[in-house]
Amino acid sequence: TSEPVDPFKQGWLKGVYNEKAVTDVRTRFPPEPNGYLHIGHAKAITVNFGFAKSYGGACNLRFDDTNPTKEEEKYFTSIKEMVHWLGFEPHTITYSSDEFDKLYELAEELTRRGKAYVCHCSPADVKRGRGQLGGGEYGPRSACSHWSRAVDENLSELRGMRDGKYKPGEAVLRMKQYLATKPEEYEVSEEDSPAAKKEKEKLKSLSDNPALWDAAAYRVTKNNHHHRTGDKWRIYPTYEFTHCICDALEGITHSLCTVEFETLRPAYNWLLEELDIKNRGSDEKGPMQREYGRLNVEGTILSKRRIMMLVEGTTVGNEPESNNTAEDAAEDLEELSLAEEGDEEHPSAAHSLPQTQTTTTTNTRRIPPAVAGWDDPRLFTLVALRRRGVPPGALKKFVLDLGVTKANANTMTHSLDASIRTYLERTVPRLMLVLDPIKVVFQNLPDDYLEEREVPFDPKDKTKGTHKVPFTKTIYIDRDDFREEDDADFFRLSPGQSVGLLNAEHPIRCISLHKDAGTGKVDEIIAEYGKDVPAGRARIHWVGESAAHHSPVKAEARIFNPLFKAAKPNELDWKTGGYYDDLNPDSLVVFPNAMIECGFEYIRDNAPWPKEEGEAKGTADKSSVRFQGLRTAFFALDSESTGEKVVLNRIVSLKEDGGK
Ligand code: ATP
Ligand code: MG
Ligand code: MG
Fold first, then answer.
1. Does residue 320 have a pLDDT over 60?
2. Considering the domain 437-457+467-541, what is its CATH architecture?
3. Could you give the ipTM of this predicted complex?
4. CA separation (Å) from 370 to 119, 307, 403?
5. Active-site choice (26, 265, 304, 386)
6. Catalytic residue among 26, 28, 32, 265
7. Does the annotation count 184 as an active-site position?
């Protein structure tokens, strides 16, 4: 037996550690509390918490709550729950908003140092100054008249912004970065020493980076009531100003983020260097930013805006949704949005995105919701995956098995399902469950016939124990396992034929059948059981009927299939509602009369197998009650279950091709 390999102590992650091999590693997971987390965030959580844990350090949960317009209490709560569910405990829960006083103080300090100015240009003028011609084209850049303002004037204007002198859009505090750098400043000449040449090359690369074209630090927001700080502030700091400073204030050593932030790394360092938090060109002091690839999952929708359309329905046509803001466009581009609403200054919003026109149509179409909520098990939000019964350990394993490198990890929902299947195979007990029961009555057995079958929860692992299953005069089998017409290729039950039963001693043979007079459907099979019945060619699952054993347990079983017919729902028409026509009519299949053997009550109420790290004992976390239905699928208890009603969710099918 070899030691399990720690994925954090090799490859790219090890390299990141070695670049700054400190003993007090400190990381953070910094979500914006403006939506529910999705499977992509499971990677960010696993990477940040896992990295710190592996190197004996700690990870904070930081709510990056600097955009008051979009934040809501329910998101804070859900994010905390999901981190816990994934089995991690934050060292400290922090809020960027707790640092608003210090951040503002540092904005004044930066201004005093001559490294920030208050600008009154319109968004269009700002773009022009930045040389943005649209469509990713650039022309010459130039600083505006506000660039050369005196320090004292900037300070008093910043205070003016703070004190309500300006309305949204009328004033922005901009960092004085490299917008005004002239090509002649980095033009290399013959006389330059090698060191001077290197300096000039560095200057050129900095001044070529749109993230350093005097990005915004503070702006006056439209809705300025903040969830935590109330009406204290009219101005709020941008991501670019806040993130690196909060990292520094929290003592973050390794600030791990996704690759789309790589072009922002020089801006991250610039601000910390200007404030003497970092030394120029060195990661020794202060936090160090490094970037890992995003997790992109095809086959579902992860964009907040689009999930919102699925959850709430939408009206398309002459609607704000179809006004393509930079943010919308960014989400369309594989959801690489760094932009905040109205934040024209953001480099990703302002320079790399296609400029789309607002289309005005007179026809509107109301599109109804497609799912029941953010935790609808057909979605890939973390609340939905949890509700479906996916074990958190399976998600973490999936993320790490894909590998953490600089490259984006592109995968598909069915690869995730395969990984969950493999994980469950080894971890959950097995039970017999019948989705669509037909009654089978053995005419050769007495009414009170009872065989108590001792059945292991996991035939491959005796330590998981056994339980008793009643075999009785009446049992139930799955409708799929019976055919009225026999067929040479059909190995299960049909008139005159016999079949074996899992966990029972003898086979059974169908003698005759009874049909419901109304529906014409077979509602009872008359059969015989015993050692004289010829052996069948297959073995099927069943559930016995015994009040004393509480068998069967009645349940509603919900089977989930892909929400869309298209393999790449991101490519559907989300603007005019075409996505709605691609919905898979079979994405939810309900079996209202399913039956489970009595072993279910035992696993539900006693749950002897280890729960996942973040899961509560017993049924406090209903979705932690999981089992493999023999020959059917993996199931978990749904959150809607009560003491009286059992609702089951299919976690995944047993085989890749789906089946039930
Ligand atoms: P959304 O995809 O919903 O727009 P976001 O990027 O706005 O998500 P944040 O709350 O800002 O979400 O993200 C918190 C952290 O999670 C960030 O560090 C972000 O880089 C990371 N993250 C977001 N999406 C992914 C993903 N698909 N893969 C890996 N990390 C991600
Ligand atoms: Mg995003
Ligand atoms: Mg974001």
1. no
2. Beta Barrel (2.40)
3. 0.96
4. 45, 9, 33
5. 304
6. 32
7. no
